[in-house]
Amino acid sequence: MIREISEHKLAEETLRTSGEQLREFAARVEAVREEERTRVSREIHDELGQALTVLKLDLSWLQGKMPRGQPELRNKMKSVLVQVDATIDRVRKIASELRPSMLDDLGLLPAIEWHVEEFQKRTGIRCKVQSGVDGVELGPEASGALFRVVQEALTNVVRHAAASCVQIDLTSDGRDLRMSLKDDGKGATEEQLNDMRSLGIVGMRERISRVGGKFKIQSQRGQGTRIEIRVPIQS
Q1: Is there a contact between 182 and 174 (Cβ–Cβ < 8 Å)?
Q2: How far, in Å, CA of 184 to CA of 9, rounded?
């Protein structure tokens, strides 16, 4: 019996150690992914964006040299310039979705406000951000994790919630930054929230866990969904 207890404890310790190693590995993989997103985002914005801008300037020059007696050709050039403008906008959007430059340059709150504004324009779902965390600094990993959670949570609102309004609040007690996201949608059951096949919720929970934070989600049918997050502030 003593041998069986010892073997059981050894197995538990081995499992715990393996779990910690897997979490550390996952955290490193996620950090590398964020670094790669940042690099690709900047290259797309700087290299491709600059090339398209030069192309637009050259096309505009050619448009100015076209004879006025060829309206069909001039209309075609105008159409091409419209397409180039649309492509430039799309390139900027892709770069921002990969890794918003303002997340690194200005911080978490401006990045969240920008994303929420874009989300509201795109979906028509009203969003409100309230913050009392001016001057609070988070490490790049924690900021990235919170921003990705906001992205995923808003994506879930569109896909599943049938909500008309989302409220995001950020507060701080000096030790932790707290963020809550609440929608007025149709809600979900406990089984749906705990379903391991729900990769969006699993991913959000893992992201926050990897930066030493706490993640909680609550929902009831017909009463919307609320996400509460707490992450340590960088000392």
Answers
A1: no
A2: 46
